[in-house]
Design goal:
The structure holds two protein chains of two kinds. Chain A is mostly beta strands. Helices cover 0% and strands 50% of the residues of chain A. The chains are: A mainly beta, B mainly beta.
Chain lengths: 121, 109
Amino acid sequence: QVQLVQSGAEVKAPGSSVRVSCKASGDTLTNYAISWVRQAPGQGLEWMGRIIPVPAIINYAQKFQGRVTFTADKSTNTAYMELTSLKSEDTAIYYCARVLTTYYESGLGYWGQGTQVTVSS
Amino acid sequence: SYVLTQPPSVSVAPGKTAKITCGGNNIGTKSVHWYQQKPGRAPLLVVYDDRDRPSGIPERFSGSNSGNTATLTINRVEAGDGADYYCQVWDSGSDHPGVFGGGTKVTVL
């Protein structure tokens, strides 16, 4: 079955960058739209953006424009999210999520386990 | 950008029915997806495209969507259904396509 496994927890200094990976097994990750969602402590889910393999579109939520980059590596079946200029408010759990079907706006049917990113001096 | 409004909390006795609403402007013209999240866990898709259930989700979970309100209904509520529930839509063509509601905490009494 499809599984998404994310990289481990990170502690970063303010102003630095973090890259989170999301490796898929059980199917070809890059055939599906992948979203990145974060959740600050005690807060709700916040959509950061998505990468749609066909027709090769990347949407970034306006809030993160200029600070976030999504990439995908077909050879390793892995997606990546890089967030730069980190602030304390970026402390959160970051999730990758894949749509359930090949339709890019299906529900997010598969989720990684989450990666805790802590921004602290 | 598009806004989804959920009640912060819903309480329900075991065996009864819980209804969680998700309000949005003409949400009936969009496909609504619902997620369950338990503490320390990743979200789980329980209903997609308004009323379809992924494999493995009990029939007790159902959805509807019309006008300005979508609803997730949990029949014969069990203790294990206590969790946070989020609605989500894709606002195609906007600069912020992915939209989540604020979440509803379901407490089983």
